[in-house]
Every structure is written in C-alpha cells, then in structure tokens.
Write a sequence for this structure.
C-alpha cells in the first residue's frame, strides 16, 4: 500500500489524536515530566506542604507522600506516566524518597532541555548523564557511614528523618522508637546476613484516640471478635491452635436425595451431626488448646461446645493473619483436625478481646520471641490514621533498607551538595561536550537543597552558596530549615 501511495507510510490514528516529532516531541515530553515534578516539589522537606486530593467520586486524601499523590493523580501523558513509575520503583526498592527521586528526575530533564537548546545531541547528554550517575554512586559510597541493626540511636534518626515534615511530626520521636523496635524484633540473621521481611510487621489502624496512642504489640492484632458471647474475653498463658479447615459439617459436592419416612430418622441425622461436631471440639480440647483461630467457618453448635469448654475462638481469620500468628506464637497451621496435637500449639502470654472505639479486636500479646508484630495506629480521624499508616510504612522501608545495605548518608541537602561537588571535579577530566552534560547532572542534584530552602521561606540561592562554602571544610554539613542554621 505504501508503494501505491508514492512510498509514504500510512498511519491509522484517531481523528482526535495529535502527532509530534523531533524537537517538538522532546519539548512536550520534558514539559509533561517537569509538571509532575513541580506538583510534588512543594511537599519536600520539614516545611513542605500537604496536598488535598479529591477524586471523581468525592473521596478525599490529605497527604505529603509523593508516591501517594502521584498515584491519585489522573495522568494520561506517556512521559508523565514514566515519572510516576520512578516514584513507584523508589517506593518498592527503598520505601521512601519518592519525592526526591521525582524532583531530581524533573530537574535532570530541565537541564537536558537547556543543553538541547545549545544543540548538544541527545545521545551526548545521555552518555554524560550515565557517566555522572556512575560517579555519583561512587561518591555516595565513599561519604556513607556504616550502620548495623544494633545501632539503635542512628536507626531512630533514620526513621525520624523519614517522618519529618509529614503528618506524624508531633509524635515522630515516639513513633521512630516504636518502628525501630518492631524491625529489631522481626530481624533474623542467616549466613551473616540480616533477613527482614516487612510483611511480618502488620499495620492495623483504628480511628479514635491520639497519634501518641499508637502502640507496638509483640504479637498480632486481628480486627475480629470472638464467635460466642459465652467464651472468655481473656485467656492468660494461652495455648493457641491455628486451623485451616472448617469446624462444621461440609456439604457434599454431589446432589443426593435422602428419603425420610418417620421423625426418628430425622432425629438420627441431627444426632449424628451433633456427635461429629462434638468430636471435632473434643479433638481441639484434647490437644490442650485454650485459644482457636480458624481460617474457615465455625458451626453454631461448635461455637456452643467451644464456649462450654472455655475455649476462646475466632473464625474466618485472613490467611495472612494466620501466617503472622504462626510466626508470632510458634504454632503450626493445621489443615486436618484429626492431626492436631499439643506440639502444634503456639504460646501467647495474653489473648483477649478489647473494644477499640466501637469495634471489638482480638489481641495476641506477650509472645515468646515473636517473629511477627503489629503496629496499632490510632488517630482522631480517618484521614489522620491513613496518613500515619503511610508515614509508618515509609519509615519501616528506610530503616529496613539501612539495615540491609548497612550504609546511611547525611540528609538536609548535605549529600546532594557533596555529590555535586565531586561530580564537577570529575567533569574536568572528561573532554568534549559530555562535560557539559556531567556538569548539568551536578547542577540538577542541587535542586534538593534549593527546594528545601524555598519551601521553608528561605532564599534558595543564598542557602546553596552558603552550603557549598561550608562543604569545603565538612562534607556532612546540611541546612536545618527548622533552626535556619547549617548543621552537621
């Protein structure tokens, strides 16, 4: 067909579509990405502002978290979507730093656009940026400090930094200690490596109380109530059974018809069902269990017999919660009730049902060496507990990353200024136009201290000049926007 039309390619696109190419396409893509970066730039740092996002159905989200803001935005432009992916990748890999990553990406594109206007070819810019990125990694490794899972004081500082400027500002010291304790509890050493699975930290949120009422439970909290009011509300020195099987008579998988000719036959069926249910409960009792968490259903009659035996029971517990209970209590998840025995039971000092707000919740506490814990988040409104959950999630991510990689770097713009300084020195050794791209990369990194100062109402240029001067003497100097002073 192309040959018949004089060799011109044929494009099949919608009438409403627009097509750009060359410099116009570059400008459009860079502009779209920079708009996304500018949208979150004002949230950066201790003096960054929160964003209120309202979706199409009227749901409101108030947050300072970069990746949450970007996820809530309705973005269609392909280049802008790629910037959102940067934030998501940062969140998945590290847990925090999403705003910083997006702001730096936006600034790199801005500097690249300036070079394009100077007729520097895109491949030269890309090559220079790659060289600068490799040098940046080398510099950051050199200026980093070693950290271990036992360095509690430094880990608390790492967690506090992640929380600064977010919704948990007033309680950041308390929450930071709580987060570090949670991570230390679930951390395991294997072949000289520290293994930390963040899934073993459950975050349960409940409206009511203040942020300071948030607590760390050495065990698992389940948002359910016991199945029968006749059961005890509290069990001390609990022996816990975890069951992944129904405690009820299951229906057959095929259709069957039973002909009953007299009432005694019906009674015989009822008696047999009752006997089977009673046998199930007796098997649980004989194992020594005083608490039962069941992933499936519990028959009404079984509930009655369990209550009669003084066994605390919860039904339809989520699979994830059952697995966390196993990690916390040491119990084995049983799939066949006939196999249950004392060796399958776990232990908790206390299992009790408590009213939190208007709802009942089951607390499994005081477990011996638990490898799963719960952070119960409290706050006055839904928006507050949602934001505190995001803050805790981010802080957990950075603390775990710090322990996993065993390195931390200075904040408050110190690392960016020092890295930029090193890259500029490196650029002098590179000939050709790539040097311009490397210098542009260094300039882009300094958008972070500039943004921190700008969001705090300070002069960004004066702040940056002062930082550069001080870094001749001390590479860990950053700008504390709370005290408006340069500090180590």
């Amino acid at each position: 067909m192309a040959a018949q039309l004089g060799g011109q390619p044929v494009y099949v696109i919608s009438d409403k579509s627009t097509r750009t190419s060359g410099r116009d396409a570059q400008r459009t893509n860079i502009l779209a990405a920079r708009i996304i970066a500018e949208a979150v730039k004002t949230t950066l740092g201790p003096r960054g502002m929160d964003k209120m996002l309202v979706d199409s159905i009227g749901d409101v989200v108030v947050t300072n978290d970069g990746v949450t803001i970007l996820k809530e935005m309705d973005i269609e432009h392909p280049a802008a979507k790629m910037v959102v992916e940067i934030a998501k990748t940062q969140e998945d890999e590290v847990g925090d730093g999403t705003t910083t990553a997006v702001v730096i990406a936006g600034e790199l594109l801005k500097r690249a656009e300036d070079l394009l206007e100077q007729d520097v070819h895109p491949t030269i810019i890309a090559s220079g940026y790659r060289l600068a990125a490799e040098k940046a990694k080398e510099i950051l490794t050199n200026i980093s400090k070693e950290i271990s899972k036992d360095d509690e004081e430094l880990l608390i500082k790492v967690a506090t930094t992640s929380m600064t400027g977010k919704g948990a500002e007033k309680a950041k010291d308390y929450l930071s200690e709580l987060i570090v304790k949670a991570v230390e509890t679930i951390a395991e050493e294997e072949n000289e490596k520290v293994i930390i699975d963040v899934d073993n930290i459950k975050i349960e949120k409940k409206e009511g109380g203040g942020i300071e009422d948030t607590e760390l439970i050495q065990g698992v909290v389940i948002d359910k109530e016991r199945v029968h009011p006749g059961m005890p509300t509290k069990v001390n020195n609990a022996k816990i059974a975890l069951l992944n099987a129904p405690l009820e008579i299951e229906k057959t998988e095929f259709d069957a018809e039973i002909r009953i000719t007299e009432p005694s036959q019906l009674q015989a069926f009822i008696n047999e069902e009752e006997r089977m249910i009673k046998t199930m409960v007796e098997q649980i009792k004989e194992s020594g269990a005083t608490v039962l968490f069941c992933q499936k259903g519990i028959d009404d009659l079984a509930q009655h017999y369990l209550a009669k035996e003084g066994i605390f029971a919860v039904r339809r517990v989520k699979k994830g919660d059952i697995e966390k209970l196993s990690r916390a209590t040491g119990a084995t998840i049983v799939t066949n009730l006939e196999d249950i025995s004392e060796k399958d039971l776990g232990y908790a000092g206390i299992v009790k049902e408590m009213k939190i707000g208007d709802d009942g919740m089951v607390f499994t506490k005081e477990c011996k060496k638990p490898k799963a814990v719960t952070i119960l988040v409290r706050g006055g409104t839904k928006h507050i507990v949602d934001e505190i959950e995001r803050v805790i999630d981010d802080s957990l991510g950075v603390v775990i990353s710090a322990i996993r990689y065993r390195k931390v770097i200075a904040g408050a713009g110190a690392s960016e200024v020092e890295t930029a300084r090193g890259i500029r020195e490196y650029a002098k050794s590179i000939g050709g136009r790539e040097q311009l791209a490397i210098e542009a990369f260094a300039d882009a990194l300094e958008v972070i201290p500039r943004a921190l100062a700008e969001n705090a109402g300070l002069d960004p240029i004066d702040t940056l000049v002062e930082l550069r001067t001080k870094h001749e003497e001390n590479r860990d100097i950053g700008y504390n926007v709370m005290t408006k002073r340069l500090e180590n």
